[in-house]
Amino acid sequence: MSAPRPDARSLLRKVSIFAHLGEAELSALARLAEERSVEAEALVVGQEDAGDALFVLAQGRVKVVLFGESGREVILSIFKTPGDFFGEMALLDDAPRSATVMAMEPSTLLTLSRADFRAHVDRHPRTALEILTELSRRLRRADAVIGDLALLDVFGRLAAKLRQLAASEGEETEAGVIIRQRPTQAELAAMIGTSRETVSRVLSELARRGDVVMTGKRLLLRRSLLLGDAGRGAT
Ligand code: CMP
């Protein structure tokens, strides 16, 4: 039997649902995994397709999206940390893919076939428990998004999204929190269910008030925004 690639094994170790596995079990899984590289904009998973594999992000960035009839997109989630996984839902409930997944930049993925994934879960009940833990996390996040969509106006939704980005990838400074690679205005719009034009208008208003400072891809969020003063009182 061939030896597992050490890079595949160390990546699988980072996957929350496999982190509990011992070296031998992880090696067995790594032997089954296949590597796949995709270009920016490539379709990785198509909504309504049959689910044939689980994906683990090795490198790059992918987005989970729904497309409306007009072609407008809603971003449900972005995976960008090595070890993030997706494509589990169709493997668990035997229904078609729940959403589309597209590469946002050239990315490398590990895939595990449906049969290998199911066989692994059958043998390792702890993996099933870890999947439930991750699905609960994702459901909590989805609940928060539904709450924001129903309860906040677009000004509040953008402020809430910027606070989330500050918490997940911001860098603390004297002046506030810096996000070095902010999403584009179109991406922000697709994350909070509005148009790019509206995001542009609200960002300009936040900048005018001094709540944010935009310099190219860099975004400085001031304390007024982070502490929640901003985002109330839509214009
Ligand atoms: P699956 O339905 O097989 O294919 C699309 C994948 O996108 C899905 O599995 C999940 O892995 C992922 N996905 C769908 N909805 C969400 C969401 N709200 N948050 C995070 N990931 C999601």
Q: What features would you highlight for this structure?
A:
binds adenosine-3',5'-cyclic-monophosphate, 4-stranded antiparallel sheet, single chain, alpha+beta, 235 residues
Task: Give a structural overview.
The protein is an alpha+beta fold. It contains 9 helices and 12 strands. The protein has helices at residues 6-13, 23-32, 88-93, 114-123, 125-151, 154-169, 185-192, 196-209, 223-226, and strands spanning 34-38, 43-45, 53-59, 62-67, 73-79, 85-86, 100-103, 107-113, 171-173, 176-179, 212-215, 218-221. A 4-stranded antiparallel sheet has the order 1-8-3-6. A 4-stranded antiparallel sheet has the order 2-7-4-5. It has a 4-stranded antiparallel sheet with strand order 9-10-12-11. Helix 1 (6-13) crosses helix 2 (23-32), helix 4 (114-123) crosses helix 5 and helix 6 packs across helix 7. The chain is elongated, with a radius of gyration of 20 Å. The mean pLDDT is 93. Adenosine-3',5'-cyclic-monophosphate is lined by residues 45, 51, 64, 76-77, 86-90, 97-99, 101, 138, 142.
User: Structural class, from secondary structure content?
Assistant: alpha+beta
Q: Which geometry do the CA atoms define?
A: elongated
Strand-residue proportion: 15-25%
N-to-C series of helices and strands: HHEEEEEEHEEHHHEEHHEEH
Low-confidence stretches: none
The Rg value, from CA coordinates, equals: 20 Å
Write the layout of secondary structure elements.
Elements: H1 6-13, H2 23-32, E1 34-38, E2 43-45, E3 53-59, E4 62-67, E5 73-79, E6 85-86, H3 88-93, E7 100-103, E8 107-113, H4 114-123, H5 125-151, H6 154-169, E9 171-173, E10 176-179, H7 185-192, H8 196-209, E11 212-215, E12 218-221, H9 223-226
Antiparallel strand pairs: 1-8, 2-7, 3-6, 3-8, 4-5, 4-7, 9-10, 10-12, 11-12
Bound molecules: adenosine-3',5'-cyclic-monophosphate (CMP).
